[in-house]
Structures are given as structure tokens and as C-alpha cells.
Specification:
By secondary structure, this protein is mostly helical. It folds into three domains: about 5-110, Four Helix Bundle (Hemerythrin (Met), subunit A) (Up-down Bundle), CATH 1.20.120.1810; about 120-170; about 205-285, Arc Repressor Mutant, subunit A. The protein contains 13 helices and two strands, in the order αααααααααββαααα. It has helices at about 5-15, 25-35, 40-45, 50-60, 65-85, 95-110, 120-140, 145-160, 160-170, 205-225, 230-240, 250-255, 260-280, and strands at about 180-185, 185-190. The protein has a two-stranded antiparallel ribbon with strand order 1-2. Strand 1 (about 180-185) and strand 2 form a beta hairpin. Helix 4 packs across helix 5 (about 65-85) and helix 5 (about 65-85) packs across helix 6. The longest helix has 22 residues, at about 260-280. The protein is elongated and about 95 Å long. The N and C termini lie far apart (about 70 Å). The model has no long low-confidence stretch (mean pLDDT about 80).
Length: about 290
């Protein structure tokens, strides 16, 4: 539940009024929290850095999410940073915590910005959060530039595919729309948006029919292969039935004959297969 404006203002004022910590005081608080589990030390350490959370949350306000929720998620990141911080390292807590705060807010935005879950890889996150800014900068630098060239430049700079750039651009161009919404505003008779989706896959009748026809043809072929002798059968299998047909030269070397002789045997075998298929059922002419 979002916080009321008065509570939010109180939180911001408290954060802005919290005293800054000197390096040694900051380190002492971190040591007390890490080694003794001193929650009072944790509270002072995090309270002094809530202004950092608020400032970072403000950078994500354009995604249309509640400022209070962004601050709350940033606070979660701040607490995570406090639990992982190593005081003995020569680094300020604010520097270390910034990464965790930003990561927590970014994850929250990705989970809640759209009902469609976006990519969670580092490249996809970079694309989501940098696309608009990078697009605007490139347009300013290069002036008139085609969409295809612009997408290619963005893809190269962010290390993603052009297709990913085009898809993310489309997603960021407008809000989510329900597939159950009418095709035309306030016109229920027009049908729903999902009715206009095109499915390129064959329908069930075509799929089943193709499977039955394929099984029937394989059975016909297996029956007809019985008319071939061993050498003819080997040549047909290696030339016609493998994933990648062997060349005449390769088969000739294996059999110790010329490639021309292989071609002749293959032609004779195919003619025998055709005759065998047609002799049993003339309707198989389309198959052969």
C-alpha cells in the first residue's frame, strides 16, 4: 500500500535531517553491526544514507511507479548492502551501497513496470534502462538517421541484438493493452484484440493430415524398397534418404566403381521404385 503524501514528506524530511557520518564513525557502526548484531548501529548507519536512497529512487520516477514503493525497495537494497559490507576494506559505505540500492530499485521496476515480464539478463536490463537516453543522444548527434540504422547503432553499443532493440522500443512506446479489450473503443461488436492475432502455424486438421500422409508414404516406400538389390538399396539410402546426401564420387570410392556407374545404378533403382509403387496402387503417382 502506498504511503500517504504526509508520511512520505515526513520520511524525506527525516532523511534529509539525518547527520552525515565521518569515515571513522561509519566504520565503527559497521563493525558493531557486523560483529555484535547491534541494531541501533544498523539504524544509525542506514538512516544516515536514506538521502542516497531517495535521490536514487527519484531517477526512476519516469516509469510511473509509486515514489514510496521505489524508496522502500531502495531501502531493502540499503539493508542488503549493510549486511554484506566489509568495514576493513578501504571504501566508503555510500560507494558500496549505491550498487545494491540501484539493483534493488531496477529489479522492482522490471517486475512492476509491465504485466509482461521483461528480460532479466544484464544486457536486457541495460537495454531497458538506457534505450530512451541512448536513442535521444544518437538522434541529437547524428541528426537524420533511419530506424534500422538507429537500432543497429544501439544494439552495437549495448551488446544486444537488433531484434531485441526493436522489441524493447515497441514495448516502451505505449502502455500494456489487454487482449480482451475491444478492437475499437466502446465497440463490443468489433470483437476482441486477440481475435486479430495471426497464428502462422498450420491448423489441427492440416497437422494431423500431414502426419497421416507422412506415415502412409513411409510405409509405401518401405514396401517398394524390397525390389532393390543390396547395392541399389545402399546407393538410394546414401544418396536420397540421409540428412545430407552423399556425392556420386564418395559412394563410388566406397563401392570401387566410377561415379558414372553410381549414377546409372541410382537411376535404375529409382525407376524400379517408381514401377513398384505404381504397380500396387496407381493413386501413388503423385507420391513418386
Amino acid at each position: 500500500m502506498a504511503q500517504p503524501p504526509s508520511e512520505r514528506r515526513r520520511l524525506v524530511r527525516a532523511a534529509m535531517n539525518a547527520p552525515y557520518l565521518e569515515r571513522e564513525e561509519e566504520r565503527a557502526l559497521a563493525v558493531r553491526w557486523r560483529e555484535q548484531g547491534d541494531e541501533a548501529a544498523l539504524h544509525r548507519l542506514t538512516a544516515a544514507h536514506m538521502r542516497l536512497v531517495i535521490a536514487m529512487a527519484a531517477k526512476f520516477r519516469r516509469y510511473g511507479l509509486s515514489p514510496a514503493d521505489l524508496i522502500q525497495e531502495g531501502h531493502v537494497g540499503l539493508l542488503e548492502a549493510a549486511s554484506r559490507f566489509e568495514p576493513e576494506r578501504d571504501v566508503r559505505f555510500s560507494t558500496y551501497a549505491s550498487w545494491w540500492i540501484r539493483a534493488a530499485i531496477q529489479d522492482f521496476v522490471l517486475r512492476n513496470w509491465s504485466i509482461v515480464r521483461g528480460g532479466t539478463s544484464s544486457q536486457q536490463k541495460s537495454l531497458f534502462f538506457n534505450l530512451r537516453r541512448l536513442r535521444a543522444r544518437l538522434l541529437q548527434e547524428k541528426g537524420e538517421i533511419g530506424e534500422a540504422a538507429l537500432d543497429a547503432e544501439i544494439a552495437a553499443r549495448l551488446g544486444v541484438s537488433v531484434a531485441d532493440v526493436a522489441m524493447m522500443t515497441a514495448r516502451l512506446s505505449g502502455p500494456d493493452a489487454s487482449l480482451n479489450a475491444p478492437l475499437f473503443d466502446r465497440d463490443e461488436a468489433s470483437g476482441e484484440r486477440q481475435d486479430a492475432l495471426v497464428d502462422d502455424r498450420p491448423d489441427a486438421d492440416e497437422t494431423v493430415g500431414g502426419r497421416i500422409d507422412g506415415e502412409r508414404r513411409r510405409r509405401w516406400l518401405a514396401e517398394a524398397m524390397g525390389v532393390l538389390d543390396e547395392r541399389e538399396l545402399r546407393i538410394v539410402r546414401e544418396r536420397r534418404l540421409g540428412e545430407e546426401g552423399e556425392t556420386l564420387v564418395t559412394i563410388g570410392r566406397r563401392l570401387g566403381i566410377s561415379k558414372e556407374r553410381v549414377r546409372q545404378i541410382e537411376a535404375r533403382a529409382l525407376e524400379k521404385l517408381r514401377s513398384a509403387l505404381l504397380a500396387r496402387e496407381p493413386d501413388r503417382a503423385a507420391f513418386v
